Amino acid sequence: MVSPMIAEKIISNAPYAASAVTVIAGFTVKDWGVIIGVILTMITVVVNWVYKHRQDQRESALFYQKVSKHFKHKDN
User: Distance between CA atoms of 29 and 35, rounded to whole angstroms?
Assistant: First the structure.
């Protein structure tokens, strides 16, 4: 037997679930293609940003190493 609290949560959320199923069932293949395309584009943007950020960090570290070696060598 399901507790009354759980049953109440299920009943109160049922219309939202039914709405979501209705919307999803109404999508055509073209709609799914657009949705998947947008999601994949957003993932691509995030992955590119992460890798570009890491590359910038590496290049900055190398630059500061070269600059510090140059000034150390110049002081001697």
Answer: 10
Model's pTM, two decimal places? Answer: 0.58
Given the structure tokens 């910038």, which residue do they identify? 56
- Cα 69 to chain centroid distance, Å, stands at 39
Q: Concatenate the DSSP letters of all residues of 13-44 into one string.
A: HHHHHHHHHHHHHT--HHHHHHHHHHHHHHHH
Q: How many residues does the chain have?
A: 76
Encode pLDDT of 3-32 as tens digits.
Answer: 888 888 888 988 999 998 988 899 999 999
The single-letter DSSP state of residue 26 is T
Report d(CA 44, CA 8) in Å as an integer: 41
Q: Are 35 and 27 in contact (CB under 8 A)?
A: yes
